[in-house]
């Protein structure tokens, strides 16, 4: 809206903000064609002066109420390569935002997990995790992604950070890559954090035929069907890692199962360099297949520890993106320590 001496002239100028202006002077000079069409008059020149009374006060008020842009990064977790592993959006908040806003942002990113951090001291943050559909208490790969973002951005001077989650305080350590793999020349780093160990238990009467239909595999290839204690996932063991890779999930069937989702695992081929393969499906959370799931390995570690009689594992999640986890089962403290790398692939700002 532009106010003139004879009233108000309605004018849409895409190259001028919505702030109100006072029309000061017209003269006949050349204007862009778009303005000729809008004014429906012969070419003119005009000068605008921002109205300095109540309208300028309103503009100032609107600016003071506007939220600061939120910086974010998209980080691929449990991988050394971009576009592999499991992506998570990491949002660094300068002020708290409500749950509805966070859920809307997670839906907008539409990847398996979006997390939101608030710094509360030099090396301590609050963190909240959202899938595209709901908030969850804890997420392994988003924890790794958030840690990578914090360590890489210089937000902390320490090699140890703490996250306050809905499930308690989670400590993450930064470890030089050379100290994890002897002979490694990479100057990068791993991140290590621990989750409570989860032990698969027997199901009362597992329906093998239903499970085989849901995974589109032969019933004969199913070795065991269990469920996890902490997350109530269906836990399916197949005859081999190759069978795990060949699973063609029937999402409409998997979503009917109780609990969070369905874990599939099998022993890895000896030439692969891994101990076991796995995949994880969680359509109830809006994640048909999770590319790499840290928390699923809390039950995978305890299961394979009994089978292989060891506590240290090199695990591969055989999704289309793939992901690598180094795992240690601390039997005394009943903790599963997860180590992984991450890669930042995108940075930007949320403007709303």
From TrEMBL:
Q: Which GO terms describe its molecular function?
A: isomerase activity
SUPFAM superfamilies this protein is in? Diaminopimelate epimerase-like
Keyword Isomerase: yes or no?
yes
Supply the alphabetized keyword list.
Isomerase
| Gene3D superfamilies for the chain | Diaminopimelate Epimerase, Chain A, domain 1
User: Among the entry's GO cellular component annotations, what is one?
Assistant: cytoplasm
Per the record, the domain of life is Eukaryota
Pfam families for this protein? PhzC-PhzF
Q: Which NCBIfam families match?
A: PhzF_family
Family affiliation:
Belongs to the PhzF family.
According to UniProt, the name of this protein is: Isomerase
């Amino acid at each position: 809206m532009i106010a003139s001496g004879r009233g108000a002239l309605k004018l849409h100028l895409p190259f001028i903000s919505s702030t109100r202006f006072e029309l000061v002077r017209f003269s006949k000079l050349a204007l862009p064609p778009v303005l000729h069409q809008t004014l429906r008059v012969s070419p003119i020149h005009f000068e605008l002066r921002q109205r300095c009374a109540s309208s300028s006060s309103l503009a100032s008020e609107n600016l003071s109420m506007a939220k600061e842009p939120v910086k974010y990064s998209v980080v691929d977790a449990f991988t050394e390569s971009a576009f592999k592993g499991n992506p998570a959006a990491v949002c660094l908040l300068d002020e708290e935002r409500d749950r509805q806003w966070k859920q809307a942002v997670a839906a907008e990113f539409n990847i398996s997990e979006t997390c939101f951090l608030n710094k509360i001291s030099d090396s301590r943050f609050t963190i909240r995790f959202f899938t595209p559909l709901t908030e969850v208490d804890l997420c392994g790969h988003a924890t790794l992604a958030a840690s990578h973002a914090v360590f890489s951005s210089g937000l902390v001077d320490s090699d140890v950070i703490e996250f306050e989650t809905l499930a308690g305080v989670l400590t993450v350590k930064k470890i030089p890559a050379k100290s994890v793999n002897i002979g490694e020349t990479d100057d990068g780093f791993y991140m290590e954090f621990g989750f409570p160990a989860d032990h698969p238990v027997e199901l009362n009467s597992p329906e093998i035929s239903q499970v085989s239909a849901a995974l589109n595999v032969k019933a004969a290839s199913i070795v065991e069907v269990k469920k996890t204690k902490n997350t109530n996932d269906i836990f399916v063991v197949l005859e081999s890692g190759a069978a795990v890779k060949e699973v063609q999930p029937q999402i409409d069937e998997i979503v009917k199962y109780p609990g969070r989702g369905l874990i599939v695992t099998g022993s890895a081929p000896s030439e692969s360099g891994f101990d076991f393969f796995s995949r994880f499906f969680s359509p109830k959370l809006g994640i048909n297949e999770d590319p790499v799931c840290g928390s699923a390995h809390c039950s995978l570690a305890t299961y394979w520890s009994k089978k292989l009689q060891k506590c240290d594992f090199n695990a591969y999640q055989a999704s289309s993106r793939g992901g690598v986890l180094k795992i240690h089962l601390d039997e005394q403290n009943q903790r599963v320590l997860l180590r992984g790398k991450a890669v930042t692939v995108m940075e930007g700002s949320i403007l709303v």
